[in-house]
Amino acid sequence: MIPSVLPTYNRAPLEFVKGEGAWLIEADGRRFLDLGSGIAVNALGHAHPALVAALTEQARNLWHVSNLYRIPQQQALADKLVEHSFADTVFFTNSGTEACELAVKMARKHFYDKDQPERVEILTFDGSFHGRSSAGIAAAGSEKMTKGFGPLLPGFVHLMFGDLDGVTNAISEKTAAIMIEPVQGEGGIRTVPDAELKALRRICDEHGLLLILDEVQCGVGRTGRLFAHEWAGIAPDIMMVAKGIGGGFPLGAVLATEDAASGMTAGTHGSTYGGNPLGCAVGCAVIDVIADPEFLADVNRKAGLLRQKLEGLAADHPDVFEDVRGSGLMLGLKCKADTCTSADFVKHGYEEQLITVPAADNVVRLLPPLTLSDEEIGEAALRLGKTAARIETA
């Protein structure tokens, strides 16, 4: 008999009832060090006082009115994002998947309104993840996500990750945009080098294409800058964000330049819940904390400390780990395939009361709260080491 909750997840036998900073408390009282942050969502940890205060205050006043009316909290968050980014305008969604849908629509409408309706194709890359919607799975193109869900939405051209020559060769009179994650999350914490992001920006400019960046997982302070592409000194035309922007409240957004968004006029897109007062009140509190240069500087300092400990861990357990990768506090430990799978490592970590997240390419994702303390970084290294030792003696 099918369970009442649709069984699309192989859920761990854990039931958390409370969160405090970087810690999750199981129903039986055990405390787990959370290096997953709800898959990069709880950027400020669990029950951050600024977020609790923002949510509580707004909840007392107004939850929802719909986008038929002006929403002061939405305007405030849009203004903050425009102030701190390349963007001229913002549309709010409830998730990264919804943000992907709008980014695709926006790019195609841009060219339609410029009398180039044939330009509908978007170049994407293997290992990418852009959500589970029809457009998202078609954009990624992997068999794991698309099998059984055909016919797939057309208009996506899939390329090899890191193949700049392939990008140039794939451009045709139908090409509208290039879409890429500056750091692939689900794909195994694969970072696009700064030089390659610069090259993609240059290619888009030379061919009159739009550059769409998916920063749903790597954005909002995760790499030590407010947005990951800032490290390369470039700007996209359209960008998707979600996860960390709500600090745990369902919130996403599409940021765009005025030119890229020019086709999105009244009636071309909408959302019943997107940009509601509750979500935007929390989002404002998140940005107020994370956009602070001192906060981001501390994220970079802590990222260096954690990276150093992970490199030492890999050296101490060469039969378990073969690589440390990533940027900022978006890091990955690549496991040796003949020793264990990343999923096995995650399961063994539960025995050490440690939360990590598996990814492709046999990588264990480490996505801790950006508020992780130095002491907790040391504890993380200790528990990761104990987990590796369990695998070595299994």
Textual characterization of the structure:
37% of the residues lie in helices and 19% in strands. It has 394 residues and is an alpha/beta fold. A hairpin with a 4-residue loop joins strand 2 (23-26) and strand 3. Helix 3 packs parallel to helix 9, helix 10 (293-316) packs parallel to helix 12 (374-393) and helix 11 (342-351) packs across helix 12. The longest helix has 24 residues, at 293-316. The protein starts with 15 loop residues before the first strand and ends with a helix. The mean pLDDT is 97.
Helical residues, percent: 25-40%
Question: What is the 3D form?
Answer: globular
* Pattern of helices and strands: EEEHHHEHEHHEHEEEHEEEHHEEHEEEH
Q: How big is the Rg?
A: 21 Å
Number of strands: 17
Structural class call reads: alpha/beta
> Which spans have pLDDT < 50 for at least 5 consecutive residues?
none
How is the biggest beta sheet arranged?
Answer: 7 strands, mixed
Q: Termini, distance in Å? A: 35 Å
Number of helices: 12
Strand content: 15-25%
Q: What is the arithmetic mean of pLDDT?
A: 97
Q: Kindly report the spatial arrangement of strands forming the biggest sheet.
A: 4-12-11-10-7-5-6
Keywords:
394 residues, alpha/beta, 4-stranded mixed β-sheet
Summarize this entry quickly.
Helix content is 37%, strand content 19%. It has twelve helices and 17 strands.
Show the helix and strand layout.
Elements: E1 16-20, E2 23-26, E3 31-34, H1 37-40, H2 49-61, H3 72-83, E4 89-93, H4 96-112, E5 121-125, H5 134-140, H6 143-146, E6 156-159, H7 164-170, E7 175-180, E8 183-184, E9 190-191, H8 194-207, E10 210-214, E11 238-241, E12 252-256, H9 277-290, H10 293-316, E13 321-327, E14 330-335, H11 342-351, E15 354-355, E16 357-359, E17 363-366, H12 374-393
Parallel strand pairs: 3-15, 5-6, 5-7, 7-10, 10-11
Antiparallel strand pairs: 1-2, 2-3, 4-12, 8-9, 11-12, 13-14, 14-17, 16-17
Helix pairs in contact: 2-9, 3-9, 10-12, 11-12
